[in-house]
C-alpha cells in the first residue's frame, strides 16, 4: 500500500495570538515545539520510515519537519522546500486579530474569508508587499496579493503532480510538513472532496495524518496517529 504522511506545523506564535498569518514567517510557540516533538514520537512508534520530506519555505513548517525527523531519527533524509507548500496568502488580513476582525466585519464574513473555497480575502496593494529574498527568483507576478483555497490549490497541485505524486507512485514513503490550507488543498485533491464539503475539514496542528493510497493514488484509508 502506498503511503504519505501529512503533518500540519505545531502551534505558531500567531495561532496562539489568534492572528491571520498566511505568508508571515512566524515561529512555533512553546506548545508548537512540543506538538512537533510529539508528532515525531508518534511517527517513531508507528515505525514510519520516510524516503524524502517536503516542506514549505516558512519556518514553522520547516522546524516542524526537522523536529519530526529528529525525534524519529531520520534527520538525514533528503528534503525539498517549496513556496508552493506555503500557507494560503491571507492578503490584507495578515497580522490582524481574528476575533477583532469578526467583531468589525461580522462572524459570517470572517468565516467566509477563512473557509469558503472561492471567496478571496481583501487583497494587499502591490506597494504593501514586503520584499522577501525567499521569493526573489520567482517570475514577476507569482507572489500573490491574497489567496482563497481555490487559488492555493491551483499552485499546490502542480507541485503534487510534478514532484510528490511520482515518488508516491514509485512506492516511496513521503513526509509533507506544511500548513492548514496547503494540506487541505492536497487532501481535497487526493480524496476528491467537493468545494462545499472542504469547508468543514479542519486539520489539527502537530497531528500526523496518514493517507494510504491505491495504485492509482486514490484514497484507501486515512487516519491520525
Ligand atoms: O492564519 C492562518 O494563516 C490560517 C492558519 O492558521 O488560518 P485559518 O484557520 O483561518 O485558515
TrEMBL record:
<keyword id="KW-0413">Isomerase</keyword>
<protein>
    <submittedName>
        <fullName>2,3-diphosphoglycerate-dependent phosphoglycerate mutase</fullName>
        <ecNumber>5.4.2.11</ecNumber>
    </submittedName>
</protein>
